[in-house]
Amino acid sequence: MDYSEMDYSLFRLCDSEPIDALEAHVLARAYGEAWYALYLCEPVGQHVIKGLDLAIDFGPCGSRRN
């Protein structure tokens, strides 16, 4: 997966504040890679990780979608 093309945003669930921590970006990229490995398509839309109070919004469409 080409990370320069990966379009996502990160934010906290409790107050919708954006997150720009390096660790969160590493997690989002690993999550996207794992999703692609399992489903052979990029993640789309909002994915919530409640235990971390984190949401990853991958946007309306992935670059590999047909």
Envelope shape: globular
The amount of helix comes to: 25-40%
Major sheet attributes: 3 strands, antiparallel
Low-pLDDT segments, ≥5 res:
62-66
H/E series, N to C?
Answer: EHEE
Assembly context of the chains? single chain
Number of domains: 1
- Ends apart, CA distance between termini: 16 Å
The largest sheet has its strands arranged as 1-3-2
Mean pLDDT score: 85
**Strand element count:** 3
Work out the helix count.
1
Radius of gyration: 11 Å
Strand content: 15-25%
Description:
- The chain is an alpha+beta fold and 66 residues long.
- It has one domain.
- The protein is built from 1 helix and 3 strands.
- It has a 3-stranded antiparallel sheet with strand order 1-3-2, with helices on one face.
- The longest helix has 18 residues.
- The radius of gyration is 11 Å and the shape is globular.
- The chain starts with 8 loop residues before the first strand and ends in a 9-residue tail after the last strand.
